[in-house]
Write a structure and sequence with these properties.
DNA polymerase, domain 1, 4 domains, 5-stranded mixed beta sheet, 24 helices, binds 2'-deoxyguanosine-5'-triphosphate, binds calcium ion
């Protein structure tokens, strides 16, 4: 199988080098997808090639198949070697800095010998790079900010990226044999918005084989630690992966232990101790006799301390143990409870698909309704719609309706202007079915100004949902300064909803805030803010946040049937 891995490694490198050259994103993705396919392929790629089956593999087209053949015949990829010769080895890490494009990075390498982040930082601090490739004082500051973010970002990864890595590595481990059960544990199983690392648990009859597979995977760039039943490695995307192989009789106990959180586990152990039991990652044991009383499943571990199984998303020692004990664990909302998406864009503003394709895609998901919520006129950079354009769009939606089963809701993501008024006048807003409102500008207002601004917007009788209420971007922008408690109080008073925006870089509201808002009786919309059709799938991330916020379907706005939604949004109008 070693050739599968060799070629996959070269394809990953190819993708990175193409990225460094600012080449087409489709070509870059093609190599990444090809590499993933080879990494998870359970059959020797040479055998597949011999029977002419390469192009039948997912993600392997004629072009990549030719590269595979080239490597099998010559042991080299000429194109890759040519690309390598153009750039210094450490060049690729430079491109991970936000605010530094491939062209500038290249100029810095050629003109100042910048071949590492350390050197880049030093030259920024001494301002020696000003003047190179049009870099000004301001660019220099932005690069320094980018370096700070890069350093922080290496500390924790975003949930979806970490999940993708876990799934990919899990598939690769399965494909190469020896794996019986495999589960994701840790903060990733609890669906925290960011994670420090990927924790994987496996049962296996051949632990050494599984460990060897992990440490030799093409997407693994460094082996940090390795033993007979565990390994810790660094993945090329920056995250580390911890793998443990455990005995089947201990699997439930290990899964419970390594899912955490630590605080939840500490509480559980205290309860066990009062019952004369000791819980460890190996099982639950009678403290007096040492006899094992449980361990194969999580359910039996919880049962020994008199508790029902607790969903991983709740295991943060935020009241779940008390709730479990008193039989009032929430019946958490699931993706299947959602009847529609309440935040989506089209090419009328900054979306990348037509109205029809959005509607068809939402209908194909089985939704009962979908909103069209393009930007409003002040947001010119996102192609915001003017009043006439919005009215034309509403007419287009009404014309399209007979062709679809799904109900199309005419909406807007209306800008909240600096003074808290909305970007469209009331008489326009009232022609719509559902109105979202959001802050997209003047993020630096004082706490008082920002709070008053949003509270005023919430008082508008035609607005319904406050979208991405804090404005944060997980990898690059802190939330604006706002008194959320005052915002929630106003939302509750005016009967408005707030959003969990499921866009991976937003997840806004986050779990703690969403739980607080719901506790005040505010309906929560779980929305994708789709700009590309595939982003409709992000609903899963929004639901993850909602589950961590303890939400039940009744608290979720878009779990309501169409009639109930419309009656709420526009009382007195069907
Ligand atoms: P993070 O920081 O995103 O990786 O969060 P976790 O929760 O995945 O933390 P991690 O990877 O350090 O450890 C995984 C789980 O192992 C953790 O949730 C609970 C368990 N664990 C780790 N260290 C301890 C400890 O000192 N005491 C207890 N009771 N449990 C621990
Ligand atoms: Ca972890």
């Amino acid at each position: 199988m070693s050739r599968n891995f060799e070629i996959a490694r070269l394809f990953y490198e190819m993708a990175s080098l193409l990225e460094a050259r600012n080449e087409s994103v489709f070509r870059i993705r093609a190599y990444q997808r090809g590499a993933q396919t080879l990494e998870t392929l359970g059959e020797d790629v040479a055998a597949v090639a011999a029977r002419g089956g390469l192009t039948a593999l997912p993600g392997i087209g004629r072009d990549l198949a030719a590269r595979v053949d080239e490597y099998l015949a010559t042991g080299r990829l000429a194109r890759l070697e040519a690309l390598r010769a153009e750039l210094p080895p450490a060049f690729l890490t430079l491109l991970e800095i936000r605010g530094l494009g491939p062209r500038t990075a290249r100029a810095l390498w050629e003109q100042r010998g910048v071949d590492s982040i350390e050197r880049l930082e030093a030259l920024c601090r001494s301002k020696e790079i000003i003047g190179v490739a049009g870099i000004r004082e301001k660019t220099c500051e932005n690069i320094l900010k980018g370096i700070a973010l890069w350093k922080a970002g290496r500390a924790r990864g975003l949930l979806p990226a970490a999940r993708a890595i876990a799934v990919q590595v899990g598939e690769a481990l399965r494909a190469h044999g020896g794996v019986e059960r495999l589960e994701i544990a840790g903060s990733l199983r609890r669906m925290r918005e960011t994670v420090k690392d990927v924790d994987l648990l496996v049962t296996s009859t051949e632990p050494a084989r599984v460990i060897r597979t992990l440490t030799s995977l093409p997407s693994v760039v460094e082996v940090i630690a390795q033993g007979p039943t565990k390994a810790s490695v660094r993945h090329q995307d920056g995250l580390s992966i911890d793998l443990r192989v455990v005995e089947p009789e201990s699997f439930g106990a290990a899964l419970q232990y390594f899912t955490g959180s630590k605080d939840h586990n500490v509480r559980l152990r205290e309860i066990a101790s009062r019952r004369g039991l000791r819980i460890s990652e190996y099982g639950v044991f009678d403290e007096r006799t040492g006899a094992r009383v449980a361990g194969a499943t999580e359910e039996e571990v919880y049962a020994t301390v008199g508790l029902p199984w607790i969903p991983p998303e709740l295991r943060e020692n935020q009241g779940e143990i008390e709730a479990a004990r008193e039989g009032r664990l929430p019946a958490l909302v699931a993706v299947g409870d959602l009847r529609g998406d309440l935040h989506a864009h089209t090419e009328w503003s900054d979306g990348h698909h037509s109205l029809e394709r959005l509607i068809a895609a939402a209908e194909a998901r089985g939704y009962e309704y979908v909103i069209v919520s393009d930007h409003s006129r002040s947001l010119t950079i996102a192609g915001g719609l003017g009043v006439d354009e919005l009215r034309t769009q509403v007419a287009a939606i009404r014309d399209l309706q007979p062709r679809f089963r799904i109900r199309i809701l005419a909406g807007t993501e209306c800008d909240i202007l600096a003074d808290g008024t909305l970007d469209f006048p009331d008489e326009v807003l009232q022609e719509l079915d559902v109105v979202l409102a959001a802050v997209h500008s003047r993020f630096k207002q004082s706490r008082e100004e920002m709070t008053a601004r949003i509270v005023r917007a919430l008082a508008n009788p035609w607005m319904n949902v406050l979208a991405h209420p804090t404005g944060r971007l997980l990898s690059s922008r802190a939330p604006y300064d706002v008194d959320l408690e005052a915002v929630f109080e106003a939302a509750a008073r005016h009967g408005k909803a707030v959003e969990i925006n499921a866009s991976p870089d937003r997840l806004d509201l986050g779990d703690t805030h969403a739980r607080r808002a719901a506790a005040l009786g505010i309906p929560i919309a779980i929305s994708t803010d789709t700009h590309y059709l595939r982003e409709l799938e992000h609903v899963e991330l929004g639901v993850a946040v909602a589950r961590r916020a303890w939400l039940e379907p009744a608290q979720v706005l878009n779990a309501r049937p169409l009639d109930a939604l419309l009656a709420w949004a526009r009382p007195g109008r069907a």
